[in-house]
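User: Here's a structure from my thesis project, written as structure tokens. My advisor, Dr. K., wants to see whether a designed sequence matches the one we expressed. Can you design one independently, without my sequence as a hint?
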């Protein structure tokens, strides 16, 4: 998450450095129990458990905004510096991290607009809209021993093509605005809870790819 607070001028400066790094990389190139713990690069020595007593109901207002997928930025190389940054302190190569996030971020929904109870999915600019109501939450225990919470909403109206269920995972367990989230969607609530390798991820639409990269590296 973009928890580190940076001045706007600092973000722009860092974003410029990321953009230059990305260009340099491109130029060089041309010359339920599950397995995903949502900690990404934040490896914990002890399992991170959820205290259910601390969980509070959340409304769609927590995610109300215009959002963009980060998948295109992974594909076009904007996030290459992030993968290299992870490799310096992680146990994988930059290429391995990129493959991991390729599977995780992959989606054909490039934009999501959340307004009140309305959630609109955009594929190639074409909207599909649904109205959603709160359907509680589920605590998941991963193979690593870590736990996470998914907040679930069920479709109550809208387009037939809109998914019946959407499930948010954003590392929070109480009502709060967030700067990014992972979203799962489909028509089978239970089956959807078993999906752990593909977690389309969305950041605020007004951010540039370079700004997103900076946030990832300063988190």
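Assistant: Designed independently from the structure alone:
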């Amino acid at each position: 998450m973009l928890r580190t607070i940076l001045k706007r001028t600092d973000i722009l400066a860092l974003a410029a450095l990321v953009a230059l790094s990305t260009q340099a990389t491109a130029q060089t190139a041309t010359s339920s129990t599950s397995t995903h713990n949502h900690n990404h690069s934040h490896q914990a020595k002890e399992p991170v458990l959820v205290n259910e007593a601390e969980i509070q109901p959340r409304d769609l207002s927590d995610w109300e905004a215009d959002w963009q997928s980060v998948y295109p930025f992974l594909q076009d190389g904007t996030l290459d510096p992030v993968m290299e940054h992870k490799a310096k302190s992680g146990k994988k190569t930059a290429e391995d991290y990129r493959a991991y996030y390729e599977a995780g971020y992959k989606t054909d929904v490039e934009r999501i607009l959340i307004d009140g109870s309305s959630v609109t999915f955009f594929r190639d600019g074409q909207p599909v809209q649904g109205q959603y109501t709160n359907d509680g939450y589920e605590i998941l225990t991963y193979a690593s021993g870590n736990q996470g919470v998914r907040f679930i909403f069920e479709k109550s109206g809208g387009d037939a093509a809109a998914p019946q269920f959407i499930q948010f995972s954003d590392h929070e367990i109480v009502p709060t605005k967030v700067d990014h989230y992972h979203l799962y969607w489909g028509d089978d609530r239970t089956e959807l809870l078993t999906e752990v390798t593909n977690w389309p991820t969305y950041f605020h639409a007004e951010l540039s790819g370079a700004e997103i990269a900076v946030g990832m590296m300063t988190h």
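When you compare it with your expressed construct, this may help: Residues 14 and 214 are 6 Å apart (CA to CA).
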